[in-house]
Amino acid sequence: MPSSSTENQIMAHIFNKCQNYGFEILDDGIYNNNGVKLGQVGCTEGNWWVKRRCSGQQQYSNSVFDAVRSLSMVDTSLAEPVHKYLQSRPLEQLTTEELQQLFNHEVRSQLQELVTV
After folding, report:
1. C-alpha angle 14-18-21 in degrees, rounded to nearest 5
2. Would you kindly state where each structural domain of the chain is located, as residue ranges?
3. Burial class of residue 94 (count of CB atoms within 10 Å of its CB; 0-12, 13-18, 19+)
4. How far apart are CA 36 and CA 48, in angstroms?
5. In angstroms, rounded to a whole number, what is the distance separating the alpha carbons of residues 53 and 59?
6. Tens of pLDDT along 38-55?
7. CA–CA separation, 52 vs 90, rounded Å?
């Protein structure tokens, strides 16, 4: 079992690479700046892997850079942003995580409106 410092280092690597692409890391995966889930990246026993939203299958990668870069190539043209999907569901059916995602989107939208005024 990896130590928490190792897990923190892995998350830091993923976070840094995601920042280069403007991606956001949430509990259930990595999202682009439109709120569309791209997939997941991780490291198991020293092996980097990526799981793209479209395939759902875990594929090994040479590095964290390659894994995150492959997410930047995910076709999101037909994907619905997560907040639009969540807005269409009854609140009592949403998980705590989904409610947080919806809340975060609404806060960002309100802040963007304030900045542009």
Report:
1. 155
2. 1-76, 80-117
3. middle
4. 22
5. 12
6. 999 999 989 999 998 767
7. 27
